[in-house]
Amino acid sequence: MLLVLDLLQTIPTWHLVGLFSAGMIAFIISTISGGGGAILLIPATSWMIGTAFAPPVINLATLISNASRLYLFWNDIDWSLTKYYVPSAIIGAWLAALVFSRLDANWIQLLVGAFLVSTIFQYKFGKVSKTFDMPKAGFIPLGFVIAFMSTLVGGLGPILNPFYMNAGLEKENLIATKTANSFFVGIVQIGSYAFFGIFTVKLWVYGLVLGLGAVIGNIIGKRFLAGMSISQFRVMLLILMVISGLIMIIRNINVLF
Asked: I need a surface site. Which of 33, 96, 99, 221 has the fewest CB within 10 A?
């Protein structure tokens, strides 16, 4: 306890206030637009604490956020999808933590960004609800790939949203099911970060402060979500996917040169 108190005295107050505020704002937006809180946090968190430390801190905050969302959206979860997604995603998250410091994740974010920007054309600017049929069994390989990549980079934006939409989920069902899947994977991500010695006491503090802000953002965001129609939600989903994709492309465009 004394160690934590001594550590807090060495952390600039604006870091803590900034992380809390960033977590709250990012997850208000995330709740009303189907995800993307983690990717929205990457620029601000990287600027405040350093790019190398952002992924574990963001993943810890996301785990805390998802715990509160599980409570808020429990009755809307589609557990039939979770049983396909989670087992392979857990394996992907563990393997990614093992190689966390050995890979250049810039290419991953660049490719994911291009995919997210393309969704506005795939969904004809929100005029269609599905672009392909997504079988539940498809969430097995998808879970592995997405968990692996998100563990490396700290967040992939709302990359899973098109797959959930094409599986027939909308609004509360989409957010609830995505949250349940992310929560179980998040436990493994944080456990594996800790196991491989990536976390320090300072990173735990940063993650907890960021996560507390995210919890407040979830509560506020759910109130906004209740007043939205399905079509409004779909448009918000597309807008966030495109914005997230552009952020990822701009931040990683240098790998092409």
From this structure: 99
